[in-house]
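ok trying this again, last paste got cut off
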Amino acid sequence: MSSQARLVRSYDRTIASDLLRRYYEDSGFLNWGYWATEPKSQREASEALVDKLLDKIPHKGGRILDVACGLGASTRRLMRAYPPDMITGVNFSEVQIAEARKRAAGCTFRCMDAARLDFPDLWFDAVICVEAAFHFDTRDAFLREALRVLKPGGWLVLSDVLFRGSAASVLAGIPRANHVTSIAGYTSRLAAAGFEQIDVQDVTKACLGGFYRNIVRWPIQERISGRMKFAESILASLLCQIIAGYVRSVSKTALLASARKPGIR
């Protein structure tokens, strides 16, 4: 089995987890979220992360591509700023695409490799990718593809993760070529792909920090509210601690990036 096939199978199993679906309120999200706006739940934080990225696109309009759209939660959120017929979502899993079509009706979905986008040159006005580019084989190939499919003056916005070291990257199933050690290094990758007006921000505290605090206290809140029985909350607390510990052990930096394709829109 190829590494990509193993990754797809792993995520297909993860999204089927009853615990995670409950934690994310069956929203279809599976990201750390953005907590600086003081959301009340993981779902609201995940929505805030998409909104934060959309804020980085100066002029909304035209076609937008949601890369690694997962179960379609981010795609559905895009419908607040773009009409459905202008939104396309791509993902490597047919299982996830099938659910995305139900969640974001009217949008276009295709099963596709982010590093080999099957779209014409100069097709999209914006490209968004939420917390997934570190998985692509490779991230640099995706950046070049994003530049290719963008119209002149179009924007790429994404949230991404830098890992603690090459060993942590391997543990998380990240291609070695995607290991970047710093914000400066990440900025250089975007510049090498051909982008300009590059802005890369460290949002580790606002994203990873908020996720960690929320997921470890969530089972207790569920028990206190009566939505979870005591024995169930103990097991959920253990699992959430494991998830939070793993994420914290391998992840170094959460970042938000925006970059513009040269030319006049």
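PB: full thing came through this time. The chain is about 45% helix and 20% strand.
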